[in-house]
Specification:
The protein is of the alpha+beta class. The protein is built from four helices and two strands, in the order H-E-E-H-H-H. Strands 1-2 form a two-stranded antiparallel ribbon. Helix 1 crosses helix 2.
């Protein structure tokens, strides 16, 4: 997954600064050139990566109509002075998710 997203970012001139794939979602810190909108960039990444995943890993050669890999929405936030905080958040996401799950299981 990471290789596909890195390649697609490179094609668009988008810098993938930080990323982490979870079982059911991905966190990415991207530097998007001003000539691209966030919506178009995310649409491109989700659309093209889904096609590549279907072709390369699920052996679907054509007829992608009606197939879905990613959820429709996404969450986005612009980053300025808090870039280091976002990088740390992405790097520690799995650890934090496990901690939250342990708290839920303990009933806290």
């Amino acid at each position: 997954m990471g290789g596909i997203l890195r390649e697609l970012c490179r094609q668009q001139g988008v810098e993938l600064i930080e990323g982490y794939a979870m079982r059911d979602h991905i966190h990415m810190l991207l530097m998007i050139p001003p000539k691209y909108s966030v919506a178009n960039t995310i649409g491109f990444l989700k659309g093209k990566s889904a096609i590549r995943i279907f072709r390369e890993y699920l052996q679907v050669k054509r007829n992608f109509t009606g197939r879905h890999f990613w959820a429709r929405g996404y969450c986005v936030s612009t980053v300025g002075l808090d870039e280091q905080m976002i990088r740390t958040y992405i790097k520690n996401q799995e650890r934090e998710e496990k901690r939250q799950e342990q708290l839920r299981l303990a009933g806290l």
